Amino acid sequence: METKTIKVNVRLIRLGDLPRVCAINEEMLAENYPWAIWKGIFDTCKPYSFVAVVGHTIVGYVYCDGELVISVAVLAAYQGYGIGRQLMTNCLASCAMGKETRLQVRTTNTSAIKLYESLGFIIQGQIADYYKNPECDAHLMVHAAGQPHTATAHIKCTRRAT
Ligand SMILES: CC(C)(COP(=O)(O)OP(=O)(O)OC[C@H]1O[C@@H](n2cnc3c(N)ncnc32)[C@H](O)[C@@H]1OP(=O)(O)O)[C@@H](O)C(=O)NCCC(=O)NCCS
Questions:
Q1: Domain limits at 136?
Q2: DSSP string, 50-93
Q3: Atom 26 in ligand 1: residue holding the nearest Cα
Q4: Closest ligand 1 atom, CA of 83?
Q5: Which CATH number belongs to the domain containing residue 48 in this structure?
Q6: Is the distance from the beta carbon of residue 160 to the nearest atom of ligand 1 less than 6 Å?
Q7: Which residues is 5 bridged to in the sheet?
Q8: Residue to mutate (ligand 1; options 8, 50, 69, 85; most atoms within 8 A of CB)
């Protein structure tokens, strides 16, 4: 059983983080966006988007425009420590006073769906053939506005037993 504990700093995203965020996105997800899109929506996203930092290295991110979670990922070596949950919690805390928060997720991505459901998202509908490479339907998940979440900056995490 893995018992390693790491210190993680979850903070708001900065423009200079974007190349690293893009690189993690490309490594972890089939859904990638051109640089112009990441950069073009940065000002809209920066109040709601966070990175997780271990030492001086970004190991995960959530990119959100305040209503839609555009992308979230944690590097494989850092999954299972509670980082994805902390990123999403901070994101939802920043959106709490706004409208409902939505996201799309592959219907096959059971670990992400479990995370979102545990945070209060519900499946509102399904979009057929939403994803390509590989093809997959999407769940449209919605988190009601105003459900309280408390943001945390520094967390000490121990990896989930495998
Ligand atoms: C989804 C993702 C961001 C979760 O990040 P993470 O740091 O590993 O998640 P956490 O350690 O915070 O776990 C949070 C919850 O997710 C669920 N979960 C995460 N990994 C899981 C796994 N392998 N099996 C089952 N449930 C899992 C659990 O509900 C877990 O809560 P618990 O530990 O209290 O049981 C990460 O797996 C990832 O980057 N995946 C690839 C990219 C991706 O699929 N992004 C989502 C696109 S919609």
A1: 5-158
A2: EEEEETTEEEEEEEE-SSBEEEEEE-GGGTTSSHHHHHHHHHHH
A3: 111
A4: 7
A5: 3.40.630.30
A6: yes
A7: 158
A8: 85
Residue-by-residue pLDDT tens, the chain, 162 positions: 556 889 999 999 999 999 999 999 999 999 999 999 999 999 999 999 999 999 999 999 999 999 999 999 999 999 999 999 999 999 999 997 778 999 999 999 999 999 999 999 999 999 999 999 899 999 999 998 877 777 777 776 788 776
How many A from CA of 112 to the centre of ligand 1? 5
Q: What is the number of the ligand 1 atom nearest to the C-alpha of 60?
A: 39
Whole-prediction pTM: 0.94
Report angle CA 54, 64, 146 to the nearest 5 degrees.
105
Number of domains in the chain: 1
131 lines ligand 1 (CB under 6 A): no
Which tokens sit at 34?
């051109």
User: Which element (helix H / strand E) includes 136?
Assistant: strand 136-143
